[in-house]
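Backbone-to-sequence.
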């Protein structure tokens, strides 16, 4: 049973299905989808519409309004995609799409300290966007920051909270230039997240000095 409350946006689902997103963004979407029946169904539906579009329109231009309409249609209750079998999860924390990038399981991750007890491991993806694992000790606050681009944060273990809400395993937070936040790990246990950014964060004060070394 799924208790995920923070999901992918239509834009991300559309981009994933169309194959236009950077590798790191695809990775975090695939990892969310491996935990989330709702977004998996939305992507299956989008794939079906995308395939049908290719067959019917060929190279003819398609208006945004048409695409919006198609997306709204498949999001409505009338469309019932065939469910894919749910993958058996072997590592209780690292879902299948992530395992190739971390060398098997979270036990194999080579963490590097970034201060305040927080550790990170940057994953090997194409350079258009950066994927990293973050290990945040229970109760620890991340530096207060804004964003120059997109920041996607998927919780794998534990939970964190900010002004936008409470994010637990499987939840994905989608932050952009409009959001300034200070995520704080839940006090109950250490938090592990997969985070993807397509531009450096906007940091203040001392954290900014360390930024070039940490690639955050
Ligand atoms: Zn979802
Ligand atoms: Zn952020």
């Amino acid at each position: 049973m799924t208790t995920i409350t923070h999901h992918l946006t239509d834009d991300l689902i559309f981009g994933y299905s169309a194959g236009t997103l950077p590798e790191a963004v695809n990775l975090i979407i695939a990892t969310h989808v491996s935990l989330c029946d709702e977004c998996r169904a939305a992507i299956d539906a989008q794939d079906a519409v995308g395939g049908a579009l290719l067959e019917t329109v060929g190279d003819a231009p398609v208006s945004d309004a048409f695409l919006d309409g198609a997306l709204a249609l498949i999001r409505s209750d009338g469309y019932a995609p065939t469910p894919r079998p749910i993958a058996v999860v072997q590592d209780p924390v690292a879902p299948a799409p992530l395992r190739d990038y971390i060398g098997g399981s979270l036990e194999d991750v080579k963490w590097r300290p970034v201060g305040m007890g927080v550790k990170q491991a940057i994953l090997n993806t194409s350079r258009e966007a950066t994927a990293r694992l973050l290990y945040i000790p229970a109760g620890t606050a991340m530096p207060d920051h804004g964003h120059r681009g997109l920041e996607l944060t998927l919780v794998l273990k534990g939970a964190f909270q900010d002004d936008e809400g409470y994010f637990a395993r499987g939840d994905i937070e989608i932050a952009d230039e409009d959001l300034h936040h200070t995520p704080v790990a839940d006090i109950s246990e250490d938090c592990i997240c997969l985070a993807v950014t397509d531009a450096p964060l906007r940091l203040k004060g001392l954290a900014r000095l360390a930024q070039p070394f940490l690639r955050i």
